[in-house]
Design goal:
With 244 residues, the chain is α/β, with parallel strands linked by helices. The protein has a single domain, classed as Purple Acid Phosphatase, chain A, domain 2 (4-Layer Sandwich). The protein is built from eight helices and eleven strands. It has helices spanning 13-27, 46-58, 70-79, 102-108, 120-127, 130-137, 166-171, 174-177, and strands at 3-6, 33-35, 63-65, 142-144, 148-151, 186-189, 198-199, 203-205, 218-221, 226-230, 233-236. The strands form two sheets. Strands 3-2-1-9-10-11 form a six-stranded mixed sheet. A five-stranded mixed sheet has the order 4-5-6-8-7, with no helix packed on it. Strand 7 and strand 8 (203-205) form a beta hairpin. Helix 3 crosses helix 6. The longest helix has 15 residues, at 13-27. It starts with a strand and ends in an 8-residue tail after the last strand.
């Protein structure tokens, strides 16, 4: 059976619903759909995305959600208010970082971000359901199928899956993106936006910048081929030729 995957969502709930509808039109409601993380931040409805995916799983939908780097910020802020992601070269806190999108996420939970800064953590703690924090905290870092390995950012090349570290799985870029070696399985990932889905032979990049004015791409992966799921059905995605 084929498996489907959806790229980085970033609070774009209506785009997510539309991607699911495209998949359901060709595969029905029982299709296995893997979401490669970054549910939160920047976009208009992070809370709605969490509610939708969590409720779907609780209702028995065959949906897998792996953890992205942006999916750590909100639960970390609640559980460890002073935590700063070590992969942020700026060394700035999620709340203070202009590009990370904390205000949009907090606003989706009804947190008054204009209120006193010294009470922001308390207001967030009161507004965000504990079940959301537990669900986000416990998201898996990867999902392995015979057809592909699904992960948010990528893997450390040459390192066994069991020895991969979380920081690489949610943040890695050049060491993975620029490595042409066969990883033993197709790695399907988001994290690094591309204009259109890119098949590099050893990896499939599916974050097409939904929150940046792009699209939320859905793909179908089988033993035989990879397809983009479009409004009109399936469109083949061929490996890029060298030099592209």
């Amino acid at each position: 059976m084929p498996v489907f995957a959806i790229g980085d969502i970033h609070g774009e709930l209506e785009m997510l619903r539309a991607a699911h509808r495209r998949i359901e039109r060709i595969a029905g409601r029982d299709a296995e759909i893997v979401h490669v993380g970054d549910l939160l931040d920047r976009g208009p409805d992070s809370r709605g995305v969490v509610d939708y995916l969590r409720d779907g799983q609780l209702a028995g939908r065959n949906w897998v959600v792996v953890k992205g780097n942006h999916d750590r910020f909100l639960p970390k802020f609640i559980l460890e208010p002073e935590w700063i992601d070590p992969s942020l070269t700026s060394g700035r806190h999620w709340i203070d970082h202009d590009a990370l999108g904390a205000p949009a996420t907090l606003a989706s939970y009804g947190v008054d971000i204009e209120g006193p800064r010294w009470t922001l953590h308390e207001r967030t703690l009161q507004a965000v359901p504990r079940e959301h924090i537990d669900w986000l905290t416990n998201l898996p870092l990867w999902h392995l199928r015979p057809e592909a390995l699904f992960v948010h950012a990528g893997i450390r090349p040459g390192v066994d899956l069991g020895d991969q570290i979380e920081q690489d799985l949610v943040w890695i870029r050049p060491e993975f993106l620029n490595d042409p070696r066969d990883h033993g399985i197709l790695v399907v990932h988001g994290h690094t936006p591309v204009k259109t889905v890119e098949h590099h032979g050893n990896r499939l990049a599916i974050d097409t910048g939904a929150v940046f004015g792009g699209t939320l791409s859905a793909v179908e992966i089988s033993d035989e081929a990879v397809h983009l799921v479009t409004e009109d059905g399936r469109a083949p995605i061929l490996p890029l030729t060298k030099g592209r």
